[in-house]
Amino acid sequence: MSSTEHAAARFAGIEDWPTADLASALLETQLAAVSAATSAQAALAQAIDAAAERLAQGGRLIYLGAGTSGRLAVLDAAELPPTFNWPAERAIALMAGGPGAVVNAVEGAEDSVTEAPAALKALTLTALDVVIGVAASGRTPYVRAGLAAAKAIGALTLSVTNAPEAPLAAEADIALTAATGAEIIAGSTRMKAGTAQKVLLNCLSTGIMIRLGYVYRGRMVEMRPTNVKLHARAVAMIADLTGENTEAAEKALQAGGDIKTAVAMLLLTLDAKAATARLTATGGKLSAALKD
């Protein structure tokens, strides 16, 4: 039995506790989950650099998960395109039981050892891809089989687990482990384990985007101004980063077509074509494009 399945003696009889004490205990476990995630700091840094190196060459982020872990993986993948303008076809979440299992549980899907390898084969996996297996216990057959198939092809394999004894951690190239231990409700890994997984996935994908140049001075400079609110945010961002007024920022955005080009135009006194060429030469990294 995985440590995530154990019953915590401290919470025996919790159903009879006063509600104030119950609420305090629930919140306390969430803080413990975040604390547990910090133990993966060294592995997180290693994973960010290794993944960014592959993705810079055109690889994809591919997540594998079942149940709660799978849903958290789907969420992380889904948030990359709107946050960083990361191509949706390069952020893929494979869920045990298929897309429908995100909303409705598919019993027994996590036990399949053929579904994930078949799905990866259909994606024509390559050695440039980064495959992230997410499983609280680190024993889920679906995830382990998928990670093994990815490793055989030469893709970078990462694991996000909550049990130090997890087989998945030993099988991945880099293991991110947050040892959250027994849950307040035995086996309910949507609690501490899920929170710690969300923390690690957030930090991993955000760190990768920063390393790839999708962030400049703490701003989402890859954001696409696709509606009125985002357009206003883009203009304000350009003005703030360049010290220009909003009129100049608006004009540069219209001419350059995106935030990074507009910033380069204003700070380097270039036209849109020259600013674009400068960014292309640095792999789209604004900080590098602005250097002499």
From TrEMBL:
Keywords: Carbohydrate metabolism, Lyase. InterPro entries: Etherase_MurQ, Glucokinase_regulatory_CS, MURQ/GCKR, SIS_dom, SIS_dom_sf. Pfam families: GKRP_SIS_N. It comes from the Bacteria. Residues 51-214 form the SIS domain. Gene3D superfamilies: 1.10.8.1080, Glucose-6-phosphate isomerase like protein, domain 1. This is N-acetylmuramic acid 6-phosphate etherase. It comes from Pararhodobacter zhoushanensis.
